[in-house]
Amino acid sequence: MKYKKTITFSALMSIVLLLSAFMAQPSKKATNLKVLPKDISHEELDKVMDGFKAALGVKCNYCHAAKKDDPKKLDFASDDKPEKEIARNMMRMTAKINKKYFHTKDTQDGKALIAVSCITCHNGKEHPQAN
Predict the structure, then answer these.
(1) Assigned domain for 114 exists
(2) What confidence tens digit (pLDDT) does each residue in 76-99 have?
(3) Does residue 35 sit within a domain?
(4) How far is Cα 103 from Cα 89, in angstroms, rounded to an integer?
């Protein structure tokens, strides 16, 4: 009798483990977003961050601080590094420039032909070069 209960319990636990492996995992929610939309998807956020890395020729740790309990990992929500606030201010600045000078209502097809972005000034460098 005890043998049947053990087998039944083991079978049920196996089913539970298998089902949990195939169930949708909760999506990672970004925290401390002050400029980007709070409901941005993880994939879209990764694309934006990859764009910043390419435009400035940097890695994630340029703006994001290391976790205090594990310095090998980054604390993406932390505001410990001033570069992160500078990046936010740059995002606000480019959005303001684009809204003022490159708004979509002035184009034929409803899309701006050009717009200012990080790469416009940075050209793959941490700090823009004065010409």
Answers:
(1) yes
(2) 999 999 999 999 999 999 999 988
(3) no
(4) 20
Torsion of CA 31, 35, 41, 46, to 10 degrees: -90
In a domain, 54, yes or no: yes
pTM recorded for the entire structure: 0.73
In a domain, residue 68? The reply is yes
Instruction: Please give the residue range of the domain that contains residue 81.
Output: 42-122
State how far the Cα of 127 lies from the Cα of 57, in Å rounded to an integer.
10
Q: What is the mean pLDDT of each run of 10 residues along the chain (131 residues)?
A: 61 62 67 95 95 96 97 96 97 92 66 81 92 69
Number of domain units in the chain: 1
C-alpha closest to that of 120 among 36, 47, 55, 54: 55
Nearby residues of 113 by Cβ (< 8 Å), 6 or more positions away = 102, 107
Q: Could you tell me if 123 and 129 are in contact, meaning their C-beta atoms sit under 8 angstroms apart? A: yes
